[in-house]
Amino acid sequence: MAADYVLGDLHCNYKGLMQVLEKVNFNYEKDNLYFIGDLFDGIGKDADKCLLELLKIKNLNPCMGNHDLWVKHWLNKNQKNKTWLKSGGNYTVEKLLNLPYFAVHLTTYFQKVKPWYNYNNYFICHAGFDNRKSAINQKEINFSINRSLFQKAIVCSSQKRLLKFNFNNMDFTFEKVIIGHTPTISGKPEFVSNVINIDTGSANTGKLTLMNLNTLEYYQSDLTKKLYKLL
Fold first, then answer.
1. Domain holding 88: CATH number?
2. Is the whole-model pTM more than 0.90?
3. DSSP secondary structure, the chain, as one string
4. β-pair type (59-62, 116-119)
5. Do the Cβ atoms of 211 and 191 come closer than 8 Å?
């Protein structure tokens, strides 16, 4: 029977990716993988390996992260965002430019990428969105950069209440949202009100997280700084 998983912010952490996939004996032909986004830019510096590995997965459902969006703009429009270049983009450009096949595989990958996914009672996106508006009635970039949802969820959690969502003009509803983008302080997935944050710091020195969408059991890699011998 196929399993359904969601993968946190990756950020070039190929060694961590292989660890978590091996922990669940991931089936590349049958299992479904929702990827929260941000494939690129991190201390792992294995963007090419991560890209090729994810493309092996038949049922891959990637979200558009802010780092992915910057790479897409560079690929399609030759635009190099200054914030991106300071956040690891320089190395990504230099490395991918030297790979003759990069444009073809990046194009294939971005054809799969969406701003968000609806899975049963879960809404899955990279960063969040404006919960005052329906999820289908706002700019796509919101799902890649908007941190306000998690901040509001923290307030709701302190008040022991659920964050409310706007379902106007929508043909589906959801009870919880799964995001990344904002690294958790604990280094573990954080269940805050009805928002689950699975960015556990893979970009820097933390861990990569893979979560089963049906059981909410999660699996983590070793620390990135350990995997890439930065201790």
1. 3.60.21.10
2. yes
3. ---EEEE---TT-HHHHHHHHHHTT--TTT-EEEE-S--S-STT--HHHHHHHHTT-TEEEEB--HHHHHHHHHHHH----HHHIIIIIHHHHHHHHT-TTHHHHHHHHHHH-BSEEEETTEEEESS---TTSBTTSS-TTHHHH--HHHHHHHHHHHTT-PPP-B-TT-S---SEEEE-SS--SSSS-EEETTEEE---BTTTTSB-EEEETTT--EEE---HHHHTT--
4. unpaired
5. no
pLDDT tens per residue, range 24-47: 999 999 999 999 999 999 888 898
Distance in angstroms (rounded) separating the CA atoms of residues 110 and 127: 18
Phi/psi of residue 4, each to 5°? -120, 125
CB 221 within 8 A of CB 200: no
Q: How many domains does the chain divide into?
A: 1
Distance CA 159, CA 206 (A): 29
Task: For tokens 């990279």, name the residue.
Answer: 126
User: CA-to-CA distance for 68 and 99, rounded, in angstroms?
Assistant: 18
**What is the per-residue pLDDT across 207-221, written as a single tens digit (0 to 9) for each?**
999 999 999 999 999
What's the domain range around 56? 4-227
> Looking up tokens 């030297």, which residue turns up?
98
